[in-house]
Amino acid sequence: MNKLVVFEQATQQVVPESLSPSQLTVWNDCEQRWKFSYVDKLSPRRGRVVAFEKGSYIHEMMHYYYQLVREFGLGSPIIMVSIQERFKQDLANYIMACNDHDIPVDMNFYRDISKAVIDYINLQSPLIDKGMTEILVEHHLEYVYDGRLFHGFADLIYKKEGKWHIRDHKSGVKNTYETKMVERVEQLLFYGTIFYKLTGEVAIPEISFIHSAPPTSPKPGTVIFGLFEAAHTKASYETYWNHLVRIHEKQKSSQVERNYSACKYCAYYPICRADLRGYSAENIIKYRFNGQIQNSDSASSDSGKTGFTLNLGGHRYHY
Ligand code: SF4
């Protein structure tokens, strides 16, 4: 028999037009989850909508504050008047939204956040922001490679003493950041890398931490504010860029892997299990998700088999 040679072409999948740090977080947790979410665009149907969330509101106020700094200059009295006005207006809207959705108004929420933001403006910002120039707020960093947009919104980019900084605002009741940890924050590495690819400049990535419910008499060791910098170099950004290109290539190849250690709180668990066992996930998707599976690595999952039973949180589901 003559030697038989087979050239098999790996399946190429249509990847999302862009790649962002939030996509990478999902990818790092589980590649299959990334596929469900970003390729198949399956979104779980959720019942309840939460009106407000502390972290995102502090974030929003930080953006507003630095837009004012950019416009009027650090320490301008107009800034505090505008911030107070904004709080009053948002509180009125919040009360109205709570009444509309029949949700109790949480006044502690506003008391905590307004204290955190006003203390930040009075105490922390003058210390860390003095000398800041060329301020860019919520700046969209965009770099196109192989037809794909690598992008993200950096909270704050500025120049100080001739060096560029890329800052991310974080808040919470416990600080978990320190310099070593900041070096591992992928979102910052991503922004720094895209900034480097765009400008050739090596920016200093940093996290500005704000305690979201600052206690009146803090216990020793409680961090109310903090600024933590990473020490990335040209080499770190070039290495990370090569890593991003490898991820991009792998995503195109459709060779996604499943990370079973991340299954515990995965919203896609029922679909994933059905797919693995060769059952059709169609019915699960129909009742619990928006979207549909584009392709699957399980050979028998399109067999149309039904009758799949799944134990979830003490309940048995039949599909
Ligand atoms: S159930 Fe587990 S393996 Fe499947 S997508 Fe979710 S995390 Fe990944």
Describe it.
This protein has 319 residues and is an alpha+beta fold. It has helices at residues 21-29, 31-39, 54-72, 77-101, 107-129, 179-182, 186-199, 234-253, 269-276, 282-288; strands at 18-19, 43-44, 133-145, 148-160, 163-172, 204-211, 225-229, 289-290, 309-312, 315-318. It has 2 domains: 18-47 and 251-318, no CATH class; 54-232, no CATH class. Strands 1, 3, 4, 5, 6 and 7 form a 6-stranded mixed beta sheet that branches. A two-stranded antiparallel sheet has the order 2-8. Strand 3 (133-145) and strand 4 form a beta hairpin. It binds iron/sulfur cluster. The site of iron/sulfur cluster has 13 residues, from helix 2 and helix 9.
Ranges where pLDDT stays below 50 over 5 or more residues in a row are 298-304
Profile the largest sheet: 6 strands, mixed
> How many H/I helices?
10
Tally of DSSP β-strands: 10
What gyration radius follows from the Cα positions, in whole Å? 24 Å
Spell out which ligands are present: iron/sulfur cluster
Shape: globular
Number of structurally distinct domains: 2
**Category by helix and strand content:** alpha+beta
Roughly what percent helix? Answer: 40-55%
**What is the element string, with H for helices and E for strands?**
EHHEHHHEEEHHEEHHHEEE
Strand fraction equals 15-25%
The average pLDDT is: 83
Distance between the termini: 49 Å
